[in-house]
Amino acid sequence: MAEFLDEWAVNSDILRQLCRAESTLDIFTKLGADHIPFELHEPVAPRQVYCTIGNYRSQLVESAVDADNGRNFDDKRDAALAGIETRRREGVPYVCLKGAACVSGPYETLSVDAGMSTLDWETEIGVVMGRAAHNVDVAHALDYVAGYCVVNDITLRERVFRQDVPTLGTDWLQSKSRRGWLPTGPWLVPAWEIDDPATLRPWLRLNGDLMQDGVASDMIFSIAEQIAYLSTHTPLQPGDLICTGTPAGIGTHYGRYLRAGDVVQAGVHGLGSQWVLCTD
């Protein structure tokens, strides 16, 4: 996949022609096989993984309302919405790095080690770059996208902030970057199959119960704006993966975190869904 995406400009034209050809459908009909017997790996092998933090209005409002700061519901909600709109006007995306080694397949197990009491889920829309991007503008940012996929940005909440050095801020290595903490896929859906990424709807079920159900139009900074922002600070390369934020409904809100035996199904309408079993 890395080699395929490195030559995306050429390969995408070939892929599009194959997908549109009636002969391709005939081949699938005559020779195709159900994918279930096969082991599906992650659809991308990114050099870099970027995660946009706090990017859905619904999630930020939910966190603000959940906070016990002595104010009533309406005051907390209104203050959160006002802060979001100020950030929208005057701020920029908040992006962290997540180790590429944490990328795993869509149907692998997720180890919940002893002592991990706050391992949390974050279903997100993954954006895979198809062209090198440096200082691109928002209007043309989506032209650099190869496709979209489902990702689940697993996060250990208790390690987000370092207790031994509280003044140094967040620790994304300990809290986000272990092996298996970014289930990805099952599919990489080419960008031309998605008319408007703002209509994509990420969702997540825990043991069958719907926990997250969002829509990309709720993002503070759109996918195009995130790409443009990132490209001003670092050159984006083909195959790089951008996790674009998570909607309301993370485990912190429910006071319920992942534990052995849980089944996590994360998906995005139009991009498929993944199924991960938590083990000890």
UniProtKB/TrEMBL annotation:
Keyword set, alphabetical order: Metal-binding
Alphabetical list of SUPFAM superfamilies matching this protein: FAH (SSF56529)
Domain Fumarylacetoacetase-like C-terminal, residue spans: 70-273
Keyword field contains Metal-binding: yes
Pfam family, one: FAA_hydrolase
Cofactor(s) needed for function: Mg(2+)
The keyword Metal-binding is assigned to this record: yes
Membership in a protein family: Belongs to the FAH family.
Protein's recorded name: Fumarylacetoacetase-like C-terminal domain-containing protein
